[in-house]
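S.,

Sequence below, as promised.
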Amino acid sequence: MAYEIVLGRSKEDFAKLGTDAAALLGKHYVTMGKTTSLANNVFMDVNESHVVLIAGKRGSGKSYTMGVMAEAVLNLPDDVRNNIGMIFFDTMGLYWTTKFPNYKQARLLEEWGLQPEGYTKNVVVYAPAGYFEYYKEKNIPVDKPFTVNPADLSPGEWTMVFNIVLTDEIGVCIEKNINDLRKKSDSYSIDDIITLIKKDKTNSDRVKNAAINRFEGAKTWGLFSEEATPLEELVKRGVMSIIDISIYASAAGGFDIRSLVIGLLSRRLLEQRMVVRKLEELSDVQKSTTYFSRSQSKVSDELAEEKQVPILWIFVDEAHEFLPPMPQTTLATNSLVQILREGRQPGVNLVLATQQPGKIHIDAITQSDIIISHRLTADIDINALNEIMGAYASESLFKMFNNLPKLKGSALIMDDKSETIYPIQIRPRITWHGGGAPEVLPKDYETKEKPEEY
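The prediction came back faster than expected:
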């Protein structure tokens, strides 16, 4: 009888929990002699906090695997799923399809004992407010608009998104006026920033006009509002909120706008979970001691208010674009690195997908306790993973990749908890995958003249 594998779960916890609070990812490849076959189910623990890195060259299935992982969490029993909130930063506009069943692989799903399913109630797709109606007109499924408050950006973040050095004269002008606004109010609009710059008597008209032009441009991004989307709306229990920022991928300066959204929201979410976790700890302490003078009911009330932000799973596709190797940085780098280093205790999980593990921030590799790698061929990428996976490998990673079945979805998984590397096959998605590459010929096309070796 095949035994179950739960990645990220110790033997002691497995004996206690079994496969409860674990998401099904695929099956383990077992080789006997010259025969390789699928055997044990492979799950991923969601009871504790994890950092997961998904790697693979273009077309190897890493985005598909990220979709499998997200839907596997959504597919958990209510008593588990409702303790989890999910934020998916969709940088390429692929994951709105999670709402729809995967009928095109119905036969393959049946072989796995699964069936197509869509998540219309548990998946909410957010689009930037300025593009929400545009998406609707194009019949692209989006549910709600989202905005961020310009007051949440520091002077340094404004200059970085504008590709200006903070110490340049335009940067100095922006810093001065943003700091002046912050002294007056916790919330303000871009128009408020522009108005104050116009009144600035310490800078020349040339400098002020250059700064104003940039803020006028920011207004066209359709992203900013004093009435920013509240965190408790974005993060709901048992729901995956897809933040579709793909519209900025091809826009001028689009890279910085996507980084800005990821960095701002990630930072706010981590801060909120830190507050919740402190109240949870204080509540636990007060249940077992009377040393604290504050009434337990008061702490419970505060916890109930803050509990709107549950344990978090944050997904970031194409992570190398937002977490480049040092000394490069983006507007998302600091927030994501902080989650990598400090997210375990407050219960913030992070899933990163990249096609270039050799060109990603070192912490994305060293802080990951689960690494899923599809086929890689570039030395720089294999060597990067070898820094951590090599310690658990019985043979070279090059050889282990070569020994994988030549099937899309095959992968090596490093589980730091068990100090083991598993060859596995990722299961088919039950929801529709939106990341397939277009083809010139119809899907059902077959040539009339078969090649000789056919």
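The mean pLDDT is 90.

Coffee later?
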